[in-house]
C-alpha cells in the first residue's frame, strides 16, 4: 500500500500504468539504483499533476531532494508525452 499525506482521487490502474512505464524505461536504460521505486515515483508525479504540489513539498513528503523530485517528475512527464504522441 502506497501512501501520501494528501488524499488524491485516482484509480489504481492509473498509478500502475505510470509505474509500469517508469519500470520499463529504467530497464531499457539499465538504470542504477534510485531513491524511489517506480510505484513511489509514479505516486509523486501524480500528486504533482493532480494537486499541483510544489517540488519542495513533494521532496519533504517523499524524503528526497528538491532536485530529485523535479527530475523524477520531468522523467515521467516525458514518458507520458511520448505515450500521447503515439495515440
Automatic annotation (TrEMBL):
Organism taxonomic ancestry: Bacteria, Bacillati, Actinomycetota, Actinomycetes, Streptosporangiales
Source organism: Nonomuraea jiangxiensis
Residue stretches making up the Transposase Helix-turn-helix domain: 34-82
A Pfam entry, by short name: HTH_Tnp_4
Protein name from the UniProt record: Helix-turn-helix of DDE superfamily endonuclease
A GO term, aspect molecular function: endonuclease activity
Entry keywords, A to Z: Endonuclease, Hydrolase, Nuclease
